[in-house]
Amino acid sequence: MKAPTPGTTDALPAAAGSSPLVARLLYGPTGIGTHSLRFAPALQPVPAPPAVPEPPHALHAPQPPEQPEPQAPSTPSSSSQRIEGLYCPPAVRDDRALADEVNARLVEWAEKEVGLYPETELRDALVGFDAGRSVVLCHPDAVGIDHLMAAARLLIGENAVDDYFCEAEYGGTADRRGAALAVAQSAIDPAHNIPRYEADWRAGLDSHPALRSMRSAMDYFEALATPAQAHRFRHDIANLYLGYNAEGDCISRERTPTVWEYLVQRQFNNFRPCLTLTDSVGGYELPAHLFADPRVQRAVTLSSNASTICNDLYSLRKEQASGRFHYSLPTVIAAEEDCSIEDAFQKAIEVHNDIVHLFEEQAAELSATNPLVARFVAGLANWMSGNHEWHAGNVGTRYATSP
Ligand SMILES: CC(C)=CCC/C(C)=C(\C)COP(=O)(O)OP(=O)(O)O
């Protein structure tokens, strides 16, 4: 989500009250709530996962989203909002009422607990972003609304870090991005130090809405995830910030990378952290040794990459309209192959579709190995499909379909 900025933000968080810039960020509702800045609880035994996972119970009867049958590549779409030929199986649940409830709770959290996006227009942007529908579509096997909220808060926090520390129009600057992202990582991976510096660190986190949001979102997540799942998430977010830095480096130099380098970058600057919490939201755990299996990692990476390239395609027109230097899979293909952006867009669709097929092959192989792994890869597929549906449905507010 691109939030209008409440003024130029200093990317490096400072102790509360130490800078007028920080003070500007603190206007409006403040107070971090009781969940924020709490240290991770003491290590506790990991509850053993059930041998066979409990069947997911939907909060509401599953309602397939209104959409045409999954489309074969190159088949024209009946909906102008869909990218023609972009292959993805349909999402299995859509529920507007549930999404609205998640959005309402998100606004309450943002306003009352973390002081994020405090102005009316910013609240509207938060609702317009429709994180509620995203998590409802992407996690059809969620245990309940608390689990959906855990995913939604993290999604908002990740976007807030991107908005405030990385996006030029919201205050991110190249010379401070790396330092700001290291501090942002500490919002989910606490600093351990002598009391004096821990206190300074806490004040530093408390001084910035994006940091408060990530800290609070992580607290909620840790309350329902196992320590191994929380650890997995921290690792994925560190990689995400590596990707944010790579993108920022190219943008500040206005350098268009080669296609292979771009794909490497995008594998880090990626929706992966949203996909890999599918088991936490579903109320079960894929044990660390199974998660680490290279075949599972391949399935995670392919589904995450497809989801992120889907974003590149749906975002292209918006990014072109911004007038700022940007790059994405279509633009790097156009540069490397010296072709039109329209041709490059089609080639990017093919890359996306081939990745989805590779994921499906890997998922089919894995699903035969173990019921927990089967459920996990089904969760990855659900996320990929829900994300596709969310992007296609968010055209009016955020995305446009073709160059
Ligand atoms: C929510 C999350 C983990 C995001 C990480 C990666 C990311 C910011 C995207 C995949 C979105 O890409 P982009 O920065 O290009 O954003 P929009 O196109 O403006 O949606």
TrEMBL record:
Enzyme class: lyase
Entry's Gene Ontology BP terms: terpene metabolic process
Its EC number(s): 4.2.3.-
Sections of the chain in a coiled coil: none
Residue numbers spanned by region Disordered: 44-83
Gene Ontology molecular function: metal ion binding; terpene synthase activity
SUPFAM superfamilies assigned to the protein according to its UniProt record, in alphabetical order: Terpenoid synthases
Catalytic reaction list: (E)-2-methylgeranyl diphosphate + H2O = 2-methylisoborneol + diphosphate
Highest taxon of source: Bacteria
Matches recorded under InterPro entries: Isoprenoid_synthase_dom_sf (IPR008949), MIB_synthase (IPR047945), Terpene_cyclase-like_2 (IPR034686)
Composition bias type Pro residues, residue spans: 44-73
Keywords recorded for this protein, A-Z: Lyase, Magnesium, Metal-binding
Family of this protein: Belongs to the terpene synthase family. 2-methylisoborneol synthase subfamily.
Full protein name: Terpene synthase
Organism: Streptomyces mashuensis
